[in-house]
Specification:
Elements: E1 3-6, E2 9-12, E3 29-31, E4 36-37, E5 46-51, H1 58-71, E6 77-83, H2 87-97, E7 103-106, H3 112-116, E8 133-137, E9 143-148, H4 158-167
Parallel strand pairs: 5-6, 6-7
Antiparallel strand pairs: 1-2, 3-4, 3-7, 5-8, 8-9
């Protein structure tokens, strides 16, 4: 279990993120067109998992915008934006914003991604949602970098995640 804060108030997650140097756990997540994708859909590409509570909050939306901008400049890299939002909400947001360099994936069906990756919030007002995290994978699905943002309302460390991609 990890502890993060929401506006200074402690909240807990279900476990800890996968360790750097290990193989990333596979997942089944829903795309905005209701297809199911797994990690194997992105095999051979570097992957940034941009994970957040809800696309309908300012910080989460900003992380999608920032990674969308950065993704357009990255070779052989996929940015996967993962939340428990319905795929329709994810699609609406990116469509309205003109964001097309990221892939939105939803864990709305059973929350298994959040459980497997150890980032489900287990108490407090955001219970059941994902904590704000970034996980970077190399082309072979090996974890190269993780960050669980200590204060949920803060943005992730984009620079560190992008530097980890260069080393991946």
């Amino acid at each position: 279990m990890a502890t993060v804060t929401l506006k200074g108030n402690p909240i807990n997650t279900s476990s800890n993120l996968p360790e750097v140097g290990t193989k990333a756990p596979d997942f089944l997540l829903t795309t905005t067109d209701l297809a199911v994708h797994s990690l194997t859909n992105y095999k051979g590409s570097k992957v940034v998992l941009n994970i957040f509570p809800s696309i309908d909050t300012g910080t989460c939306a900003q992380s999608v915008r920032t990674f969308n901008k950065e993704a357009s400049e990255l070779g052989n890299t996929k940015v996967l934006c993962v939340s428990r939002d319905l795929p329709f909400a994810q699609g609406r947001f990116c469509g309205a914003e003109g964001l097309d360099n990221v892939v939105n994936l939803s864990d709305f069906k059973d929350g298994s991604f959040g459980k497997t990756y150890g980032l489900n919030i287990v108490d407090g007002p955001l219970e059941g949602l994902h904590s704000r995290c970034v996980v970077v994978l190399d082309e072979n699905g090996t974890v190269k970098y993780t960050e669980q943002v200590g204060e949920i309302v803060d943005e992730p460390n984009y620079k560190a995640a992008l530097e980890a991609l260069q080393d991946a």
